[in-house]
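Handout, tutorial session.
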Amino acid sequence: MATVYACMAPGLEEVECLAAADVMRRCGIEVILASLGEKKSVTGSHGIMIEADEMFDGERCRQADMIFLPGGMPGTTNLMNHEGLRAALLDFHKTEGKRLAAICAAPTVLGANGILAGLHATCYPGREAELTGAILSDKPVVTDGKVTTGRGLGVALEFGLEIVRLYCGEEKAEDCKAKICLQ
């Protein structure tokens, strides 16, 4: 089964991270919550503390099938400034079979690193200019090639289900959608 490496920077949008991770785990995807801060406990943008599974490890990250970036502020800025993450993102961008996913403001990290050039992408409204080279979409969740982007908190479940669809198929995603009563 697929492994998703969820990068939790201090100041992340808590629900974007946990809602998507919950949906993926329900469907059998291994989700590793990795702290990019100084300790395993990460405090989000709304003061909610989340205990990560482990500290960020570049090698462990590279073993995953997907890197997932939750948004939020200043979480997105902290993602942007993490050199180990940047190196892993660029490696994934070049490596066949590796996927990237980012929601809310976090797609701007992909844009800043040239990863969205020529791809359809979405992000939190007002941040579109930071999706350098992307073809902007107004859809709530967009997958183009091996990159999935989402607009924000309101689509976190749909975003998680898109990742389930990519790794587990349409039937599994629809079954999960019904079980969590998502219309």
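The second record follows below. Compare its token runs with those of the first.
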Amino acid sequence: MSIFSTSTVNIDGAPSMKFLQTMRPHHWIKNVFVFAALLFGQKLTDLPAVGKAIGAFFCFCLAASAVYIFNDIVDRKADSLHPEKCSRPIAAGSLSVRLATVMSIVCAGLAIIGSFTLARYFALIVVLYIVLMVLYSLLLKRAMILDCLAISIGFCLRAIAGAVVVGVFISPWLIICTFALCLFLAFSKRRSEIAQLRADSESFRQTLAGYTPELLAHMVDVTSGLAIVSFLLYAMDARTVERFGTINLVYTSPLVVYCIFRLSALMQKGKFSGPVRLILADLPFQIGLALWVLSCIGIIYAGRLG
């Protein structure tokens, strides 16, 4: 079984499988934002930088897992009533709170220790990420709009951390693009939750009481537009053109638009419980994303490849 499978692990299986399920490895795909600096910083051919980025990726995987476990402990009662989350080991009672707490502390500790071996400022970002996500689990997730803002800031910290660990400048436009894109994903997930849970949505997530399908549709439209425009501004920025020696990055925008609009359409219909499941399951989206990444690599490294 692939560790990135979106299927539910059998909670009656071995303890190691319960631990793995609680760490949510299929959500580690979110940490690919760490690699953005490798691509846009022209470091893909720098083996030491690639090694540091891979190390940063795994540090964030451990940090994220520590937060996921902590969140499952906090939400275990509500999760036990959820049609999907009830199968999580902590919510189902097959993994004790005491053992889960130890797991969370160990994952956080390993993430912080590992990050210090890579870069001091990177370790600071990892600590900030953990603190922010703990605040999210305890408080911010219950505050409308602030819940999605916190999630988006967490993704921006990943992108900034990737730049710090490989030692490259990261454009403010890329940070804005990342923030807007992740806000779009967060609002899309809320819209999908309402579409799936319908009348029971407020029982499983308190903030859904303040969101309406119409409001979320407006938020999705605004944030998706902001993400697209900020990417175009990055592609046309004088620093970007000077660095890459071309403005051709702007011509990848049709792929950006396609991926964003397809994700929006499927999420608003409630076909997927979250962006991660869609990304791992929808072939047209995967093809569009792969083509965009390959196009960016070809354009950014065209000069070096002759």
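Points raised in discussion: The chain has 16 helices and no strands.
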